[in-house]
Hints:
The protein is mostly beta strands. The protein has one domain. Helices cover 10% and strands 29% of the residues. The chain contains 3 helices and 11 strands. Strands 1, 2, 3, 4, 5, 6, 7, 8 and 11 form a 9-stranded antiparallel sheet that branches. A two-stranded antiparallel ribbon has the order 9-10. The chain starts with a strand and ends in a 5-residue tail after the last strand. 26% of the residues are buried. The model is unreliable at 187-207 (pLDDT under 50).
Amino acid sequence: MIxxxxxxxxxxxxxxxxxxxxxxxxxxxxxxxxxxxxIEYLAxxxxxxxxxxxxxxxxxxxxxxxxxxxWCAQGSQAVARVVxxxxxxxxxxxxxWVRSKTWIDGTFIPALEQVPVDKPISGQIFLVRRTKTGxxxxxxxYSVQPELGSQNDGQLKTAFGEIKDPYQCGAIQPNxxxxxxxxxxxxxxxxMAPNNxxxxxxxxxxx
Length: 207
């Protein structure tokens, strides 16, 4: 469900290509927005079951009955996410990057606000850097800044190809998503798992 930036405040606290960086790696990118208002916050559930991970759409606002969303009804708390469309100048293709509301508001938007209001955000090249900050896999940070000496060339987001929405690109699964049952040793090899599904549990809101 698409929610406003203000509504996102109440949520506490991912063949299409997805943006990835290795530790201490930097990428030159364009963020495929014309203006800040193009950024869409989404209410989702971050779920993990049997080694599988999924980001699933939440079908209710917090003012709606809890049983309007099966994941909320199971006790999973919704979080706010943004799926950023990126034109990666290293790979020369559109990629997608799922980020938390905290990072968007604290790091991403301040960087985009450096673009003049009369210029499209997609006309500016940015540098994104991943830095390792600790020993755990989640101990990383991402910085964003306009590339020094790079002038905004005025190119609109549509100049770089088709931008899929978060559901079309596969970053967000529909609310009726179900995890397939993990295959066991008792199941014959080569046969598909039966059409049964099991419940999920909430994971922590990271990044």
